[in-house]
Design a protein that fits this description.
The protein is α+β, with helices and mostly antiparallel strands. It has helices spanning 35-40, 63-80, 97-116, 175-185, 207-215, 221-224, 233-243, and strands at residues 11-18, 25-32, 48-55, 84-85, 136-140, 143-149, 154-156, 161-163, 189-192, 195-198, 202-204. Helix 2 packs across helix 3.
């Protein structure tokens, strides 16, 4: 890809992969006057698995344009919170009103194309909290979290609670501790008195990842999450298999 003529132009680029320390998807959003040269400086991070960049076919993107786009992209990705951000700060750029309008159109086209290219860090986490039948609950030590399954994993809803202290086992299995530390750093988890509170909805890769953060250590999400009747996710899945055509007979 970097051998293409387009890689010698100014534009914005996205590197994505899985952070091995937290198991979360991570993205780097950057800008460069020569895409090819800047990307080479990222090759020391071996967890980057995907590269996408955008340039203008008319070659009319200036340094101010791409800095404006970078700032807007980072701000949007941070507010959505679907991916970790490698670079959460961007200086942005002030543009004349007409140029800003043109770049907003450019941004909208990127929003449309990125999911098609397999990049979902700008895809909003759809709020379906009003669908009471889909809500699931995780309780521990008098604390309660609310969430629901999604097409991409599991969303824990704003206001949910998590334990403040982590289990000793996280010293050996550090996944939960690393993920909790990242969420606290990103402002997703906030300390309130004797607990942690989710400051916004947050989508995890699985029910178990969500439960591990809430419990402060390893947890089986299929058992930890229950519906309003107390039925676990595991029991629900077993019932769905039995009720499906060709499932187990009574």
């Amino acid at each position: 890809m970097l051998n293409r003529d387009e890689a010698a132009k100014p534009g914005v680029y996205f590197l994505s992969g899985i952070n091995p320390e937290t198991g979360r998807e991570r993205v780097y959003i950057g800008e460069a006057e020569v895409i090819r040269n800047r990307i080479k400086g990222h090759m020391d991070r071996d967890f980057w698995k995907s590269l996408v960049f955008f340039v203008s076919k008319d070659e009319n993107l200036t340094k101010a344009h791409i800095k404006y786009l970078e700032g807007k992209l980072i701000e949007t990705a941070r507010s959505i919170g679907r991916f970790e951000l490698e670079n959460a700060q961007a200086s942005g750029s002030h543009l004349p009103e007409s140029d800003a309008a043109d770049m907003d159109v450019f941004f909208s086209r990127m929003e449309q194309l990125l999911p098609i290219l397999g990049q979902e860090f700008l895809k909003p986490v759809v709020n379906e909290a009003n669908k009471k039948s889909s809500l699931l609950f995780c309780e521990i030590k008098g604390l309660k979290a609310t969430g629901r399954q999604t097409d991409n994993g599991f969303v824990v809803l704003k206001g949910s609670e998590a334990v403040l202290s982590e289990r000793p086992s996280t010293q050996k299995y550090q996944y939960a501790a690393n993920l909790r530390a990242t969420l606290r750093s990103d402002g997703i988890l906030e300390e309130k008195s004797d607990r942690l509170i989710f400051a916004s909805d947050y989508e995890f890769s699985s029910p178990s990842a969500a439960a591990a953060v809430i419990h402060g250590g390893q947890a089986n999400g299929l058992i930890a999450w229950k519906d309003v009747r107390g039925v676990t996710l595991k029991e629900r899945e077993e019932m769905e298999v039995q009720q499906a055509p060709g499932g187990a007979e009574e």
